[in-house]
Amino acid sequence: MVDDPTAVPRPDDHGRMVTASDTHRAIDAVWRIESARLIAGLARMVRDVGLAEDLAQDALVAALERWPRTGVPDNPGAWLMAAAKRRAIDGFRRDRMLERKHQELGAELEARIESAVPDLDAALDDPVGDDLLRLVFTCCHPVLGTEARVALTLRMLGGLSTEEIARAFLVPTPTIAQRIVRAKRTLTESRVPFEVPLANELPARLASVLEVVYLIFNEGYSATAGDDWVRPALCEDALRLGRILAGLVPGEAEVHGLVALMEIQASRLGARVGPGGEPVLLLDQDRRRWDYLLIRRGLAALEKAASLGGGLGPYGLQAAIAACHARARTAAETDWVRMAALYDALARAAPSPVVELNRAVALGMAFGPAAGLALADQLTGIASLRNYHLLPSVRGDLLAKLGRADEARAEFERAASLTRNERERALLLARARECESAPA
């Protein structure tokens, strides 16, 4: 007898043998890839970000009900869009009790939806008319506070859960949930237009947009939770948005700095994962697997940022740090002294506990593990890092290098207990086991 009925293969409408659990995993993967474009396309049609997300969720429910029987369609994004459009039209048609003005608005929206191009990818070809870019700027409108802009855009564009966003912010999940609900309500009540702002409005909204794009990239580069160490689709979305922004505001050094940083970081994606999906840390990576086209693009963007004058900003400085790795043919050739100096500059330009933690790593590599550990130890009392798994991970690495194996093992085990990424947890526990066999 099979305990889990979802694991029993059954034929779908095409005669293919599939299990319900297989289909649900496929739906989850499709949602991660398609949700941003789906919400963006719907927001362009209905001019309401909150309504667009509701319609997208309705389409997801329809997929969960139908796809286990019919199988995942060849073009799942188009299927979800068509389902969401039907839900929107049905909703407008049902609302016959509204006053004439609202009925006219419903008819106008219905006509707009009916005439919309169903192929999402085709609608994204024009860089200035990009629905995803419109969605970013809508969610980053000045009517919202900075934290609300970032949280809402990550939710809408990155397809991230509320918990994943909270992890990125190092704040409680209910706090993020409240921000998102309030932000959607504010956008609706303020009738914020779904559009790319005019040139004179760009500076006020650019910093928040850059932060959003980078956080999306980071979630793809090092997934907060789940079974995958990396989520390349998120990196690709962030890179694409960054390149579009660079074309829209070519005179902004920090835009080029962010693009440089993402290009260089993305060059390592193929080397960050081993044959079994296990994480491969930077210094252990096979650098022949790095994408040197992306590195060249990143170095060119960094040069562009520097050429605009005024010195490098926080993103440019991080790109310069990444370039130290990119220029080193082997891990041993990395210029850690220069990297430590760049982290010093970054700590002055954009001080934060996470920057200090990264600076501790650089100091440990440049001047010995004791120097790095001294700084890392100073960060243990900071509230925002209390449950941040990379702090005990860094301390464990530095303690191991100092021969303090028992302390290192405890730190790696603590880091493993804090991470929600299964691949990362396995890596940290493996490092803890190595400490058990280390010579006293």
From TrEMBL:
GO BP of this protein: DNA-templated transcription initiation
SUPFAM superfamilies: Sigma2 domain of RNA polymerase sigma factors, Sigma3 and sigma4 domains of RNA polymerase sigma factors
Domain RNA polymerase sigma-70 region residue range list: 38-96
The RNA polymerase sigma factor 70 region 4 type domain, residue ranges: 138-187
Ranges where the DUF6596 domain occurs: 205-306
Top-level division of the source organism's lineage: Bacteria
GO MF term set: DNA binding; sigma factor activity
Name of the protein in its database record: RNA polymerase sigma factor (Sigma-70 family)
PANTHER family (UniProt xref): BLL0085 PROTEIN (PTHR47756:SF1), BLL6612 PROTEIN-RELATED (PTHR47756)
Pfam families associated with the record: DUF6596, Sigma70_r2, Sigma70_r4_2
Entries under NCBIfam families matching the protein: sigma70-ECF (TIGR02937)
InterPro entries, A to Z: DUF6596 (IPR046531), RNA_pol_sigma-70_dom (IPR014284), RNA_pol_sigma70_r2 (IPR007627), RNA_pol_sigma70_r4_t2 (IPR013249), RNA_pol_sigma_r2 (IPR013325), RNA_pol_sigma_r3/r4-like (IPR013324), WH-like_DNA-bd_sf (IPR036388)
Organism, scientific name: Longimicrobium terrae
